[in-house]
Specification:
Blueprint: E1 7-8, E2 12-18, E3 24-35, E4 38-43, E5 52-57, E6 63-75, E7 78-85, E8 95-96, E9 108-114, E10 120-125, H1 127-136, E11 139-143, E12 148-154, E13 186-191, E14 195-204, E15 208-213, E16 222-226, E17 235-236, E18 238-247, E19 254-260
Parallel strand pairs: 8-10
Antiparallel strand pairs: 1-3, 1-17, 2-3, 2-5, 3-4, 4-7, 5-6, 6-7, 9-10, 9-12, 11-12, 13-14, 13-16, 14-15, 15-19, 16-18, 18-19
Length: about 280
């Protein structure tokens, strides 16, 4: 089970260590995905499982010891490796990740930044907070560093800092566990076989969202979804599964309903009560 959200972010880093022949190396590279306790990095070195590394984050100037978990995939610019941070008390990325206990069910996840002190934090938004953010592109929330309520906007990565079956029946309003809001917001879907697609939501709730696409996906397909999505921002992807599909006649698009996949430790949601206010 994941203990924190995963953030797709290209952060410049320096890794150093010793190769199997005992030679020391230093490499300027970058992360592709970060979390509180690990990262996916690119390296041209022949890293091996359980190898010890030192990672310096050029964004924060902090160092932390890490251990290679193993290779993930190869690319022309180098191989992708999973690494675990051995010093989780060091906030090497400068981003606060709330610990996940299996009960989270946000409508959207964002990396927000305090306008005063520039503290960055992964924030879970319910449907109404998401609606406010989309309308204003900001939120007023408490900042632990400023010790007061401040303006928070979506964090962006500076380009200069980056180195060269049968459908499931739809529920009635009375049967739905979560209220829906008609929000049109960009959603990015990622899949190992189908690749990446950016679409627009038709409505969202704490349990999932509805989209339209010209692509034909099978019911049951699991994506990593970012909602809301911004091409130049730090986006957080969450597993979501297609639970129903409509349309697809010639010349039309498909309508899909996707439900967030809860953590294995999440309790039953049947006891939760969420009240929708009028309007």
């Amino acid at each position: 089970m994941r203990t924190s959200d995963r953030l797709f972010a290209e952060i410049p880093i320096i890794i150093s260590g010793t190769d199997p022949e005992g030679r020391q190396f230093v490499e300027n590279t970058m992360t592709l995905v970060v979390s509180q306790r690990g990262a996916r990095i690119i390296s041209k070195q022949a890293l091996f499982p359980q190898q010890k590394l030192s990672i310096r984050c050029l964004k924060t100037g902090l160092d932390a010891a890490a251990q290679v978990l193993g290779p993930i995939m190869g690319e022309e610019e180098g191989c992708h490796f999973g690494v675990a941070i051995l010093q989780p008390e060091v906030n090497i990325w400068g981003i606060h990740f709330p610990l996940l206990d299996g009960t989270e069910n946000p409508a959207g996840r964002l990396v927000l930044e305090c306008a005063l002190c520039h503290t960055q934090e992964v924030v879970h938004l319910d449907v109404f907070e998401l609606e406010v953010f989309l309308a204003n592109q900001c939120l007023i929330r408490s900042c632990p560093r400023c010790v007061k309520s401040t303006l928070w906007t979506q964090s962006e990565l500076s380009e200069e800092s980056i180195p060269p079956e049968r459908p499931t029946p739809r529920h009635t309003v009375q049967e739905r566990k979560f209220p829906r809001l008609n929000l049109k917001v960009q959603v990015c879907l990622r899949h190992s076989e189908y690749g990446q697609e950016v679409v627009t939501s038709e409505n969202v709730s704490q349990g999932g969202f509805r989209i339209r696409s010209q692509r034909d996906y099978p019911v049951g397909t699991v994506f990593e979804a970012a909602l809301p999505y911004s091409p130049r921002a730090s986006n957080i992807f969450t597993p979501a599964r297609i639970v129903y599909k409509q349309g697809g006649a010639e010349g039309t698009t498909f309508a899909y309903g996707l439900a967030y996949i809860p953590s294995p430790m999440a309790p039953s949601l049947t006891g939760l009560r969420i009240t929708q206010t009028a309007g």
